[in-house]
Specification:
By secondary structure, the protein is α/β, with parallel strands linked by helices. It folds into 2 domains: 107 residues, 3-Layer(aba) Sandwich (Rossmann fold); 104 residues, Rossmann fold. Helices cover 43% and strands 17% of the residues. The strands form 2 sheets. Strands 2-1-3-4 form a 4-stranded parallel beta sheet. The chain has a 4-stranded parallel beta sheet with strand order 6-5-7-8, sandwiched between helices. Helix 4 crosses helix 8. It is globular, with a radius of gyration of 16 Å. It starts with a strand and ends in a 5-residue tail after the last helix.
């Protein structure tokens, strides 16, 4: 059986649990096995460039060690830490959550707005979008002002995500919303229903691409 390893680069096990639940629609009888893990040595949340850089080294080290244990890897963080470095240590396909989510928006032919966690994340997201040449598909990136540790507060987080989502839709004319943190996975369905637009969960997008790559026999160069 083919296996996809989904890596949460932060050490927050609640985030990993939310990611794992989000994989349910992709776990069909004939699909590759999808296993989600937490990097226990990772930062509690990837909120700054410094924490992103720390996570990147841990991700690439783990993928190098686990290269023979999986057929594809998903890095479940909207900063895609370690994706480029990891592609140098294995020939297995590696999918970054952010790159996959933006590519999904592009493939749907929609202009997307990103809901981020904190102000400090926005510039990093734009740098990454430009680096993978997908920035033209993003109309705006707005934060909800909550760290990763507070994303489990459903009442507060859902209210702020809805507020920012409405701003993206109405003020920036976003035709889709991208969740700018893997810890937001639990809110996708509710947000999509309330906003009336497609909401893309980045880890789901990456895992879906990983499944397609394995079924079609694609491999990294």
């Amino acid at each position: 059986m083919l296996r996809i390893l989904v890596i949460n680069p932060n050490s927050n096990t609640e985030v990993t649990a939310a990611i794992d639940r989000a994989m349910a629609p992709l776990r069909t009888a004939d699909a590759p096995t999808i296993d989600c893990i937490t990097l226990s040595d990772g930062p509690p949340g990837i909120e700054s460039q410094r924490s992103c850089d720390l996570a990147a080294s841990l991700v690439s080290a783990h993928i190098a060690e686990a290269s023979e244990e999986a057929d594809a890897f998903v890095v479940a963080c909207y900063s895609d830490p370690g994706v480029s470095a990891s592609r140098e240590v294995t020939t297995k396909p590696i999918f970054g959550a952010a790159e996959s989510a933006m590519a999904m928006a592009a493939s749907l032919g929609v202009r997307a707005g990103v809901i981020s966690i904190l102000d400090v994340a926005v510039a990093r997201h734009w740098r990454h979008a430009r680096s993978v040449m997908l920035a033209p598909f993003i109309v705006a990136d707005l934060p909800i002002g909550l760290p990763v540790s507070e994303l489990a507060d459903e009442a507060q987080c859902r209210a702020r995500m809805l507020e920012v989502g409405l701003r993206l839709k109405e003020a920036h004319e976003a035709e889709a919303i991208i969740l700018g943190c893997a810890g937001m996975a639990r809110y996708r369905a509710a947000l999509e229903a309330e906003l009336g637009v497609v909401v893309i969960d980045p880890t789901q997008a990456a895992a879906a691409m990983a499944i397609s790559a394995l079924r079609l026999g694609y491999r990294a160069a």
